[in-house]
Amino acid sequence: MRVLVLEDNPHDAELLMFELRQAGFAPVWRLVDDRAGFLDGLAEEPDVVLADYALPGFNALEALRLLAGLPDAPPLIVVSGAMSEDTCVEALRHGAVDYLLKDRLARLAPAVEHALAQRHLNAAHRRAEAESLEHERRFRAAFDHAPVGMAVTTGDGIVLDANAALLEMAGYGPAELPGQPLAEVIVPDDRDIVTEYLRLLHSGGTGERRTARTAPPAGPNADPPVGRPVREVRLCSRDGRVTWAQYSASLIDEHPTGHLVHQIADISARRRAQQALQRQAEQLARSNVELQEVDRLKSEFVATVSHELRTPLTSIRGYTEILAEDVNGSLTDDERRIIQIIDRNGRRLLSLIEDLLTFSRIEAGTLVLRRGPVQLTDVLESACDAVRPSAQAGLSIHLDMPPRLPAVEADAAQLERVMLNLLSNAVKFSPEGGLITVTARPERAEVIVSVADTGMGIDEQEQSRVFTRFFRATEAQRRAINGSGLGLAITKSIVEAHGGWIGLSSTPGAGTTVSLGLPVLRAADEEMDDRGPSADGIRTPMVQDRGMA
User: CA dist 363 to 55, 273, 296, 520, Å?
Assistant: First the structure.
């Protein structure tokens, strides 16, 4: 038993605890003598408070006022050296459960026992009252706000209460339907359906709170067990509006003539909703077809424009290369710089056009993969050599792989495109003095390749979108780093077309690692391919062609 003692005389407090121990209690107690200590003691949730009536700066009445604001306050017994009748009455009026004089402590133990018992009784009463109120509140809320019409009637069908949903269906005001037969809201031709339903209900069955008295008739036309079935009936409102509804009922008293609760669900609204959903589905289907057609036309337009742009751009680049050769040695440094800018931007445009054409073929399902045995060591070395000249000063590209890797069945040109995309991204987003590490390792039935950089990284919230077409990271846009947002989308499509996988991990400010896995060539296929390819690739949608690499 936890005891909080409000007392300024430690000797008197010890005497109180002695009396409680003598009575068989095992008090765990705390002594306080001011308001702050009293509040701290209440935090330990004492079972009872023993308080001197008057202390310097604090007293039992103030303690009682503090306890009055608590939801489950411990009982307080006033123990004082001297108390007048008025002070006793005042203490009781403020909520004290008892009062004692310090020279008559024989009553202390009985007073504590009574206080604890009264507290337990009060707590049980509060719980029971709260549960009762909660049950009533829940039932009332469920009844009043039920999405279906509900009514409580006597055994002979007189309405005692009806919820808002039923009143709305029937066109009655809150005080108009109670006292009327429920049959008044049902179309006359359908009243026999309800009468028969209630007759079966009263005759017994398996419904809640009812005892079976008679077995339901057997046979193919027999009703399901009573309490489960519903009937379709028509309701007629005061303004003549007819509503189709599902009707069911159950007894809420054990006696067969007891009260019933009726449920009436408006299925006409459900039918209207189903029809609306059907119309929406049809509209969505039409919209989807239209969007697919728009997307197809867009892809065709992009492919056509890209193809038309590539021819003159190739010519421009060719003449630019001729100019750059400076056969006669007549170009000044400024002219060479201008030609280099033209060549660099021409290469960028040509790369963008190639990306657009490749992506259009991927979306149209016409990308041709000419598959054959490919040595990834050659692809990786070629890609690294191609990218190194474009790397900024001080940026290192390190290739870490064994001398020979298992062959993969792939389109060598498309795999080189994949690696060039990944390495180009790493170069673009890495700072001067950074490091790009390309690793390749065989693991079980696949070869795993990773490209890791020490660049700016990608925000965690954006990492799930990096393989989405035309997506560009916020930081890349802020820094105005060139890019179309197609490279990783194309890379993912090509890798997955080869039966592989690709993923990304990144830490903002620390760098990004893109890893991919490609299935290795089976031993039997590798032996066959060592004798040479036998045929060219055959084009199929998102083509998986075997043949010349």
Answer: 88, 37, 9, 26
Cβ contacts of residue 486 below 8 Å, gap of 6+? 355, 356, 359, 469, 470
The answer to whether the Cα torsion of 446, 395, 343, 330 is positive or negative is: negative
Q: Which residues lie closer than 8 Å to 539 by C-beta, 6 or more apart?
A: 366, 368, 545
Does the pTM of the predicted model rise above 0.85? no
User: 406 by DSSP, 3-state: which?
Assistant: coil
Q: Which of 65, 18, 11, 19 is nearest to 42 (CA)?
A: 65
Burial of 411 (0-12, 13-18, 19+ CB in 10 A): buried
Residue 533 buriedness (CB in 10 A; 0-12 / 13-18 / 19+): middle
Question: CA 181 to CA 338: how far, in whole Å?
Answer: 97
Give me the amino acid identity at 438. Answer: V
DSSP three-state, residue 473:
coil
Do residues 118 and 48 touch, judged by C-beta distance below 8 A? no
- Phi and psi (nearest 5°) for 345? -70, -30
Contacts for 348 with CB less than 8 Å, ≥ 6 apart: 482
- Tell me the domains of the chain and their CATH numbers: 2-139 (3.40.50.2300), 144-271 (3.30.450.20), 278-356 (1.10.287), 366-546 (3.30.565.10)
Q: Which helix (H) or strand (E) holds 507?
A: strand 501-507
The tens place of each residue's pLDDT in the chain, 549 residues long, gives: 899 998 888 998 898 999 889 889 999 999 998 989 989 999 989 999 998 888 888 888 898 899 888 888 899 999 888 778 888 888 888 888 888 888 888 888 899 998 899 888 888 888 888 888 888 888 888 888 888 999 999 988 899 999 999 998 899 988 899 999 999 999 999 999 999 888 888 887 533 333 333 344 444 334 444 445 789 899 998 888 888 999 999 887 655 557 899 999 988 877 778 788 999 999 999 999 888 887 777 667 666 766 667 677 778 878 788 887 877 778 788 888 888 788 777 777 777 777 777 777 777 676 778 888 989 899 999 989 888 887 777 888 999 999 888 999 888 888 998 998 899 888 888 888 889 999 999 988 899 999 999 888 888 888 888 888 777 777 677 776 666 677 888 889 889 988 999 999 998 888 999 999 999 987 544 444 444 443 333 333 444 443 333
Give the amino acid at 268: S
CA proximity to 452, closest of 489, 503, 495, 402? 503
Element holding 89 (H helix, E strand): helix 85-93
Do 220 and 206 form a contact (C-beta atoms < 8 A)? no
Residue type, 162: A
Cβ count near 545 (within 10 Å): 17
